[in-house]
Amino acid sequence: MIRSSLYVAETPGPRVLILGAVHGDETCGTKALERIQTLFESGTWTLICGQLQVIPVCNPGAYKAGVRYLERNLNRYLVPQNVPTTYEARLGNILCPWLAACDTLLDLHSYDVVGGPPFLFLESGSAANRSLAQSLGITTAVTGWADAYAASGRAKPSNSESTDESTGTTEYARRFGARACTLECGHHADPHAPEVAFRAARSLLIAEGLLPPEVAANDPPLTPEPFRLVRVTRVVDQETPLGVFAKPWNHLDPIQKGEVLATRGDGTTICAPEDGFIILPKATAAPGDEWFYVGIETGLTTRNDPLHERS
What is the CATH superfamily name and number for domain 5-226+304-308? Predict the structure, then answer.
């Protein structure tokens, strides 16, 4: 069972959906959204317009067990299934209609690597709006994951399940015209991650006009920082026998062309194809799971901000 709270103002406006715990071991979004629920239920917050739906725990079974998922990654193959065969597929059938009905989606996550900043995970080819990103308190974004994942050869047009392999919450919502992004709020155990999630969600509601700016009046002003956009160029999966990293990488550590990043179990080395960054390195990745990504810094494009794109 998935528990959802819906708040609807008398005045029409955007339909905003905010998710937590799509992965059961990522609890910062849950804590932030439960805090938001308390603010609405106590009457401290009231919507000016539109509607807000919050789902603090999208994967309750995995959340209870303290694991990423029970049978498969809920944030992959997230499309309706006529005959769902896994627990996460059944959850997907509940979530998909809500994703299809929203105008704006914010999906709150955390990551399982050592060190690294919060960052926005944006749709491939999208532009990042500096002012909006900084209003969320986030100055780093990663884009291009879906294209890199497809280029890895795992997405096969002849197989509908494989074609949808890279479809998660944001990709599915965008199919129906939604504005969507994923926020990685920090490491799973980062004590600051719930606050990052809360402030980002609140800032989004202010930016969308659902809440007045006064709800954030007591916050210290954000310090302007240069906005950095990193495009994923390669996805590397773990294999059997297990490989090892060349050193204890942190998320977004810089790498140089030709530098050895990791060695597979068969002795094959994986080198950086160009100067750039290693992204979300996971030393504990199981065979078949994403082990790490490689990316390069890229400039902003002239398209609309991903939170407001309609692709």
Answer: Zn peptidases (3.40.630.10)
Domain 233-298 has CATH 2.40.50.100: yes
Burial zone of 84 (CB within 10 Å; 0-12 exposed, 13-18 middle, 19+ buried): middle
In the chain, CATH 3.40.630.10 sits at 5-226+304-308
Q: Is the pTM of this model over 0.90?
A: no
Per-residue pLDDT of the chain (311 residues; tens, 9 = 90+): 999 999 999 999 999 999 999 999 999 999 999 999 999 999 999 999 999 999 999 999 999 999 999 999 999 999 999 999 999 999 999 999 999 999 999 999 998 876 778 898 776 444 434 555 666 768 788 887 767 877 766 554 444 445 677 789 988 998 998 888 889 999 898 899 999 999 999 999 998 999 999 998 887 766 667 778 899 999 999 999 999 999 999 899 999 999 999 999 999 999 999 999 999 898 889 998 889 999 999 865 433 444 433 32
Domain with CATH 2.40.50.100 in the chain: 233-298
Q: Which residues lie closer than 8 Å to 168 by C-beta, 6 or more apart? A: 22, 75, 76, 78, 107, 182
Q: How far is CA 253 from CA 120, 279, 280, 286, 293, in A?
A: 17, 8, 10, 22, 11
